[in-house]
Amino acid sequence: MTSTRHVVVGAGLAGSAAAHSLARRGHEVTVLERTRPAAPDGSSHGSARIFRYAYRDRFWTDLVVRAKDGFDELERLSGRRLVTPTGSLDHGATRDPVALAAVLAACGVEHELLGRAAAQQRWPGIAVETDVLWHPGAGVVDAESTVTAQLELAARHGAQVLPGWDVERVVATATGYRLTSTDGRVLDAERVVVAAGGWLPGLLGRLPLPAGFLDRVPPLRVTQEQTFHFPYREPVADGRGWPTTIHGDDGVDHYTLPGGRDAGFRGQKVAEFAAGRPLRSAAAQDGVVDPANRARVTAHVERYLPGLVPEPYAESTCLFTSTPTEDFLIDRVDGITLLSPCSGHGAKFAPVLGELAADVVTGSGGPARFTVAGLAAAGAASRSAPSSA
User: Fold this and answer.
1) Which domains does the chain have, with CATH numbers?
2) What is the distance of C-alpha 83 from the center of its chain?
């Protein structure tokens, strides 16, 4: 049996960010991962997540600005490219580019509003039916490389990463907590951070959490999502020249982004946002793509993305773990912190969320409990939902 000051359960984007932030502050940290960091059956694998500033609520855009500073520092310290600039388009009847532009203007984020004709001329491979918001600072986050960079930097500060350590249960002790793995290994810790992604709902009942605390944890909905890669009609070097996009219409958001190495840089990754099959937890995923979802996304490509061949050459499933408001859960009771910054749009915030989580874990950031909404100025409780990727 061994012991440590802090244990982080889960080595995805959230867990690795928390481990890095704690370790760089001088805390002893051990990271436990059920398989391996950024595992393909989790939410942090692969090289393609959207990095964007356009939100309807200034709170989120301000947080993206902070996160970009964090990514810049991670790139400098690790020597890895983590965010590839592509720019981003928002269009469609329900995206409201004018309102999004007002938020970017208030936050000092470079952007441009274009009419339909001008946008169509600039991006002939994308069919638009409304005004378009363009912001060039957006891009693509390499999720797996970000996890690797954060864990490498955490290790430089003394953190230990233990792959193949699947947590079976956590019990309270006189000095903190005892974690037991499914193969019988035991680890004692003073404090525990649970960043288990889609496995968190299944772990909640195996954590020593007071009933009152559990009552205030928002419902966590796990879904198995689908993504599809469509080839470019014209040769494109590593996706350059194609922006990320979010198109909103008829209550459905479709997002696209250059697919990166996930599918050989050959095409654009396209998906419906939060349209997947509900699961009790990540353990119930089967990796089977829904043919009806494939048909809907292909129809969207045919109509709105004429620069792509409407036949997917690659497809995969992934996990979303979402709260009803799409806010993030960072909540502590005694020595246990729950960390679930997902809801389908969390990857872009990884570095800053590590800092916020470390504040909560150590009690140095004000109240122990908040969703990210609670960090905003007083009166922000009526914020609109973040929405999309």
Assistant:
1) 2-45+145-219+324-382 (3.50.50.60), 88-136 (no CATH), 222-321 (3.30.9.10)
2) 14
Mean pLDDT, the chain, whole residue set: 91
CB–CB of 91/255 below 8 Å? no
Strands 186-194 and 336-340: parallel
Cβ proximity of 147 and 13 under 8 Å: yes
3-class secondary structure, 150 = helix
**Separation of first and last alpha carbons in the chain:** 41
User: 367: which DSSP letter?
Assistant: S
The contacts of residue 377 (CB under 8 Å, 6+ apart) are none
Would you give the DSSP letter of residue 50? Answer: E
Per residue in 54-104, pLDDT (tens digit) is 999 999 999 999 999 999 999 999 999 999 999 999 999 999 999 999 999
Its pTM stands at 0.93
**101-120: average pLDDT:** 97
> How far is Cα 229 from Cα 298, in angstroms, rounded to an integer?
10
Three-state SS for 215-280 is HHCCCCEEEEEEEEEEEECCCCCCCCCCCEEEEEECCEEEEEEECHHHHCCCEEEEEECCCCEEEC
Cβ burial of 141 (10 Å; 0-12, 13-18, 19+) is buried
Phi and psi at 349, nearest 5°, equal: -100, 0
- Backbone φ and ψ for 225, nearest 5 degrees, come out as -95, 165
| Residues 162-179: tens digit of each pLDDT | 999 999 999 999 999 999
Q: β-pairing, 267-272 with 369-371?
A: unpaired
How many Cα atoms within 13 Å fall on the side-chain side of residue 261? 10
Q: Say how far apart CA 14 and CA 194 lie, in whole Å.
A: 10
Distance, in Å, from the CA atom of 67 to the CA atom of 341, rounded to the nearest integer, reads 13
Which helix (H) or strand (E) segment is 191 a member of? strand 186-194
SS3 content of the chain, % helix, strand, coil (to 5): 30, 30, 40
